[in-house]
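Private note to self, pasted from the team thread so I don't lose it. Backbone tokens:
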């Protein structure tokens, strides 16, 4: 509408100048050249939509190739059946789904699920990213959206497919809440065009298009996108549990020569919190370690070393001084000792090799994946975090800056206890609690836990000294060795 008003005003100005006897030819030529330049820029920007910004794929990925997401796969397949069995759905008066939103942490397999959906429904598959739609030129993003939907229909017809799946990654860039980018209305125009295109997907359309989007921040999306009739289904693609991690490891080791006796279930147990992408990287890094060593098979040791690399990063050439090495060894032994005392058989590995930003670390081996924590569990985690500094103070007489990260972790755990009503204050709102009361409550939690931590460290002082000496020479100790040294003094 604004464009029509502007065009009318421009025509009126030209007529007025012509009546008044002005030579309007130079002005007309200048405006014409500007219009042609503007159209050229727009067309250049739209090359992304028809070229490298969009991937057209006959994907070979199948749902069987995706491990650890059984719930998400089941829910997605159920939604896709609306597209696959459209005749049955029409008979019952069911309208087709217009959009499916895959939400979850990075690396959990959202893109793979979208590709598998295309193969499952025998649909044409187009993939793009939310960042491809937003430019500084007004109207470019909206035109890209129109062009993308148009292209999806054309490809489906050319390939003689009954439907098309349009996958948009990083949907939070394209679909952010309107008004959140006040200085850049191009975002809102692009989102508005997407809303219009999705509303235009009616049941009598010749080539139905299913929009599958992925995001790590579903809470940032505009409410108009999330309403029924646009993204009808929201599928949560979460981090895999232990059984899921085992299934993923089995998939990614099919093409790799594993040595006999490799316990993938143990590796799955030690990788709590790993995504599918992490596990794929783990198996790849283990194969790299085997290649470096000139081996033809991947042993369990290489897999365990790969866990450390994926979690912490590559080993560094940085060498601490002998005094620093002693302090780091004592510190890590304190963490490991406390963890083993409060949660037996929980320590998998102790190391003083520098990786990433850490001079040393303890890798834990949880017996089960836990999603709820009791007060005693949180208190035990706080004690483990405090044990490094407590060991330094008991053995070496002072603390170091190496405990700063441990204290930050302990404070976070204490605040979680406050939020969960596990303090003497009961259920509280931290924002309205006030800094003084908040400090007093956390200090009270720490006081008795620090005392208990020191008592455990003092009781096992000789074990810490022995383990620290071994770490200084061998740099690593397994959880089994720790338990052997700890058994006599337990």
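Design output:
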């Amino acid at each position: 509408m604004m464009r029509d008003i502007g065009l009318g005003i421009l025509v009126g100005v030209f007529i007025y100048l012509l009546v008044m006897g002005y030579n309007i030819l130079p002005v007309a030529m200048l405006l014409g050249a500007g219009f042609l330049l503007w159209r050229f820029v727009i067309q250049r920007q739209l090359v992304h939509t028809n070229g490298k910004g969009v991937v057209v794929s006959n994907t070979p990925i199948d749902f069987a190739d995706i491990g650890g997401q059984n719930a998400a796969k089941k829910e997605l397949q159920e939604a896709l059946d609306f597209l696959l069995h459209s005749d049955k759905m029409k008979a019952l008066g069911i309208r087709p789904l217009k959009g499916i939103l895959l939400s979850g942490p990075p690396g959990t397999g959202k893109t793979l699920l979208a590709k598998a959906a295309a193969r499952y429904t025998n649909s044409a598959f187009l993939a793009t990213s939310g960042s491809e739609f937003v430019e500084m030129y007004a109207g470019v993003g909206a035109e890209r959206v129109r062009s993308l939907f148009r292209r999806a229909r054309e490809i489906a017809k050319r390939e003689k497919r009954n439907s098309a799946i349009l996958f948009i990654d990083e949907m939070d860039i394209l679909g952010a809440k309107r008004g959140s980018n006040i200085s850049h209305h191009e975002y809102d125009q692009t989102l508005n065009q997407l809303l219009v295109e999705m509303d235009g997907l009616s049941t009598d359309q010749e080539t139905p298009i299913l929009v599958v989007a992925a995001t790590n921040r579903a809470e940032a999306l505009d409410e108009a996108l999330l309403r029924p009739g646009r993204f009808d289904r929201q599928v949560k693609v979460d981090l895999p549990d232990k059984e899921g991690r085992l299934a993923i490891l089995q998939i990614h080791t099919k093409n790799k020569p594993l040595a006999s006796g490799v316990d993938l279930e143990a590796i799955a147990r030690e990788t709590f919190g790993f995504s599918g992408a992490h596990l794929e990287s783990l198996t790849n890094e283990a194969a790299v370690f085997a290649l470096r060593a000139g081996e033809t098979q991947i042993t369990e040791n290489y897999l365990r070393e790969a866990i450390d690399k994926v979690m912490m990063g590559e080993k560094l050439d940085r060498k601490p001084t002998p005094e620093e090495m002693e302090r780091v060894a004592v510190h890590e032994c304190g963490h490991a000792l406390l963890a083993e005392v409060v949660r037996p058989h929980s320590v998998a590995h102790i190391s003083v090799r520098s990786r990433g930003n850490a001079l040393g670390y303890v890798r834990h081996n949880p017996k089960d994946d836990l999603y709820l924590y009791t007060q005693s569990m949180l208190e035990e985690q706080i004690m483990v975090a405090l044990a490094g500094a407590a060991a330094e103070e008991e053995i070496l007489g002072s603390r170091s800056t190496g405990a700063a990260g441990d204290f930050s972790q302990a404070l976070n755990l204490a605040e979680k206890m406050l939020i969960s009503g596990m303090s003497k204050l009961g259920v509280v709102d931290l924002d309205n609690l006030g800094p003084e009361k908040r400090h007093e409550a956390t200090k009270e939690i720490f006081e008795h836990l620090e005392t208990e931590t020191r008592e455990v460290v003092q009781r096992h002082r000789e074990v810490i000294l022995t383990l620290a000496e071994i770490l200084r020479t061998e740099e690593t100790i397994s959880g089994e060795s720790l338990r052997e040294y700890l058994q006599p003094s337990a």
